[in-house]
Amino acid sequence: MFEEMFDGTFDDMQYGRKKVVAHFKDGSLAKGYTKDFAPPNKIFTIISAHNEDDVTEIDMQSLKALFFVKTFEGNKEYNEKNKFQKSDASHLHGLKVKLVFHDGEVIRGTTPDYRHIFTGFYLRPIDARCNNDLVYVLAESPLDIAIGTLAEA
């Protein structure tokens, strides 16, 4: 199921690795590649984007979310659409979700697998042109979760 959620934009998929940016609860970031991320695991590794010999073990409990990205740099000039009404939602399937994190970040998208009993869930951002293809959110990270029509507000 995990591989099916990607739209084929990852150059590194052929090597079995995915570009990720890990956002930690303490506000820090780690950019690199992962080959072994799986939600049930308590630990996975990130190979540094700058030095393939630099491999860091990541404790899932330290994460806010794991962003599967197109590029590590992103596009600072692009104004990402973050409202359902203002974006083309034809690529979205699943339950509409709005997340508000403790640091004030707001993300809207859809999820095929949100259940409050899970330790986390995948979210596909609203804007297909944004740098994030997919986000794995630790269930305890959002301050608030709005679902369905409430996510549109």
Outline the structure in words.
The protein is an all-beta fold. The chain has one domain (about 5-150). It contains no helices and ten strands. It has strands at about 20-25, 30-35, 45-50, 55-60, 65-70, 95-100, 105-110, 120-125, 130-140, 140-145. Strands 4-3-2-1-5-9-8-7-6-10 form a ten-stranded antiparallel β-sheet, with no helix packed on it. The protein is globular, with a radius of gyration of 15 Å.
Helices, strands, pairings?
Elements: E1 18-24, E2 29-34, E3 43-48, E4 55-59, E5 63-69, E6 95-101, E7 106-111, E8 120-125, E9 132-138, E10 142-147
Antiparallel strand pairs: 1-2, 1-5, 2-3, 3-4, 5-9, 6-7, 6-10, 7-8, 8-9
Radius of gyration, in angstroms, nearest whole number: 15 Å
- Order of neighbouring strands in the sheet with most strands: 4-3-2-1-5-9-8-7-6-10
Query: What are the low-pLDDT stretches, counting only 5+ consecutive residues below 50?
Result: none
**Shape descriptor:** globular
What is the N-to-C succession of helices and strands?
EEEEEEEEEE
Strand content: 35-45%
What features would you highlight for this structure?
10 strands, mainly beta, 10-stranded antiparallel beta sheet, 153 residues, 41% strand
Summed up:
With 153 residues, this protein is an all-beta fold.
